[in-house]
Amino acid sequence: MYSHLRTAVVAGIAALSLALAPGRPLAADALSERQLREALLDAVDLPAGWASDSEQSAAKRGFGVPRPDEPDCGELFDTTTDPAARAGFARTRSGPFLTTVAAAHQNEDRARRSLAAAREAVDGACATFHAEEGPEGGDVRVAYEAERLDADSLGEESLAVRFHRRLDGESATTPVVADVVIARVGAQTVRVAQAGRDGADSGDLAAFAERAVEKLEEVASGRSADPLPDQPGTTEL
What we know:
The chain is α+β, with helices and mostly antiparallel strands and 237 residues long. Helices cover 27% and strands 27% of the residues. It is built from five helices and eight strands. It has helices spanning 3-19, 33-39, 55-61, 108-123, 205-220, and strands at 51-53, 84-90, 97-104, 128-133, 140-148, 157-166, 176-185, 188-197. The protein has an eight-stranded antiparallel beta sheet, sandwiched between helices. A hairpin with a 2-residue loop joins strand 7 (176-185) and strand 8.
């Protein structure tokens, strides 16, 4: 009379064994660098017109996603956490520019503290930060001022910020902004940042961030990140 109970118990144990099988990470586990690279945004996640961008190209032209002079503010767009994986994209040679960084922390608490530190920085020391921009020998010092964005929460918690660039003599009709979303998935965080002129030609950062979190969640749960259907991919600049 208890055969159905025995069947349910066996099935439950089998499912638990599969979930805990080696090589299948739990969402709370820290991922390896290889897994972080699998979770990164890539060409097929972006609309047509975007091309891969490198740190070398960004350094040569002297502008892109900001690199704050203040060391603590650099953590808003990148991370010193190891392991981490990075990728960059550009729509044209003059922007907009997109970067993403996925990082694995030692545990969930470390990941939570990382995101909390970013919030504190935006509201405090990095409410305004500075950067040197422009080609080598002709760079200028600019300031970026923070504005919290009212955006839908992503992952288990997230932060969305817009930074307005301020430069003496800059035309008010062509403002430059840098938006960044930082989200946590278990013991991982992912940053997606976009910089360029504020206008219709800007990419949909909300959609990019949502896709980045979706891929990280898939990999963190032990599944391969599935490519989006009907994506045209990127073109070369």
